[in-house]
Amino acid sequence: MRLLEISRPQPGRAPSDVVRTFVFMANLEAQEASGDAAASVTAEQVLTRLKGSAESDVALFALVDDTVTPILAPTGELGYGLLAATGSDTDVEVAGFLLISLPLLEDTDLAELDVTLDAQYLPLPGEKMDDQARAIRDELLSHGRKIAATHFDRRRFVVFTDVSEPAPPAPFRPAVTLTTTAMAVPENDVPVAADAVFLQGFGARSEYAPQIAELLSQASADIDNGELDLAPQSWDTRRLEEAAARLRDRGDRQLLTLLVQGGEVLALSEITLRADPTTQVAELGMTTTKRARRGRGLARRALTQAIARLRREYPRVETMYASAAGTDDASQALYAPYRPRTIDVARGWVATG
Ligand SMILES: CC(C)(COP(=O)(O)OP(=O)(O)OC[C@H]1O[C@@H](n2cnc3c(N)ncnc32)[C@H](O)[C@@H]1OP(=O)(O)O)[C@@H](O)C(=O)NCCC(=O)NCCS
């Protein structure tokens, strides 16, 4: 087996076969894990991620079987053979992919490693991962740690696995359980509250931008991440603008709902979804209340207003998804009235050194 790197995409060119293979495998895995066809990504979204952003960079690798046909590939900057992300490329037999995500603003000592195995190694629902698949996964994780440490100076490594998967090898230790739930959009009408303000794209260009940034900074410091030990994010107006631009780039839309009284933003709730008006699914993102105003039902009301707006603007959306740490009681309390159904449980592992 040989590890090859996938190059950066060239603007305006179509995704290569190897990127399409990655998308196919990632979607198969996501759908098997969640049982839901909506849990999928497109090749264009992957190309957008491969470009990197101000917030995080990525590197994508493929473990390929080159025993039958030796692969001729130019060597990239990291010392691995390069496969093109766009245009035509070499036909390769991929056993698994490794996506390394590198945060650039906070947690700059951390790398998230994400392994996607070829369909032949994916355990059938309810079955255990076999030894061969596990060996490929562990080989990719070991490459990932080495590459992230050597080339990107990372010292902490995070990996998420399905709860049914065997534990990744030492020194990885469990740090968080992440539960994804699906909820039906409620059918009842909710009147628009007098203090509700509806924005898009993080409200980056609105008069409330500085307060939105302040609320998001507080929320990221206070949210339950289990023992992942993530640094709080420090938001400002510029970061809101960059995040909004990334959303647009991905073809997504963010509905941001605020509760504002006397010019003060008390709470917010964000929902993201594909900009395509025919989309049927949406993701509940951050709901948060200003620290000094908590414990008075504001988060509940912000979420209710956000969902009512989603229903008005996107009547076709039927299902809402949300992810939260298993220990996050506040999220569970917030979502409980919408009768969440667990569709996926993942475990986050951390290794240092
Ligand atoms: C969690 C948070 C949004 C709650 O805001 P709030 O305005 O105090 O919440 P509300 O008063 O509207 O309470 C909503 C429900 O959550 C429950 N709740 C609030 N904080 C809680 C906590 N820390 N632990 C357990 N339950 C909590 C309340 O009891 C209430 O449940 P109930 O209606 O069944 O009684 C706020 O603490 C916060 O911004 N935290 C950081 C961001 C975060 O964790 N967001 C949640 C995930 S998106």
From TrEMBL:
<dbReference type="GO" id="GO:0016747">
    <property type="term" value="F:acyltransferase activity, transferring groups other than amino-acyl groups"/>
</dbReference>
<dbReference type="InterPro" id="IPR000182">
    <property type="entry name" value="GNAT_dom"/>
</dbReference>
<keyword id="KW-0808">Transferase</keyword>
<dbReference type="Pfam" id="PF00583">
    <property type="entry name" value="Acetyltransf_1"/>
</dbReference>
<dbReference type="InterPro" id="IPR016181">
    <property type="entry name" value="Acyl_CoA_acyltransferase"/>
</dbReference>
<feature type="domain" description="N-acetyltransferase">
    <location>
        <begin position="214"/>
        <end position="353"/>
    </location>
</feature>
<protein>
    <submittedName>
        <fullName>GNAT family N-acetyltransferase</fullName>
    </submittedName>
</protein>
